[in-house]
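User: I'm new to structure prediction. If I give you an amino acid sequence, what do you actually give back? Let's try with this one:
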Amino acid sequence: MLGDFTKSASLSTVINRTGRTSASDKFSPSFGVRRGLIKDPNWPPAHFPEHGSAASRRFRRVDSTFDVALRGEQVTVTGDISEGGAMFLLDRKVDTKVVDVVVQGKAARAEVLSASKKGLLFAHHCRFLDAAESLPVWEAIAVS
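Assistant: Good question. You get back a string of structure tokens that encode the predicted 3D arrangement of the chain. For your 144 residues, that looks like this:
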């Protein structure tokens, strides 16, 4: 039984990457894109980012102070809002899956996707449930 695992049957001889025939077989496509050897199929983006990783998101986020309605209680929070959703910071984790994001009297329902600890606060990441309902909220943020 012990003789079955000899040096000649080791893993390094079973997987022989040096015997590949062409240069394209020696690296992954993602490596090629990162090194500029292969054209990135997702480049150029529909909207060029202004700066940083947050600017490369699908929807532009705007830092703001706004209200969140949680089961009848309206709380003023800080965070950011985009056309697709919102992120707000709160001193506790909300126990509901749907909240109302309120900006200058205009409200939109949002689904709480996740909550994570951010220092002493909890960051709640939300997605608007209805694009038509969230448009006035986004416009109110964009105007201010």
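You can read the tokens as a compact description of the fold. Here is one thing that stands out. Strands lie at 62-70, 73-81, 85-90, 98-103, 106-118, 121-128.
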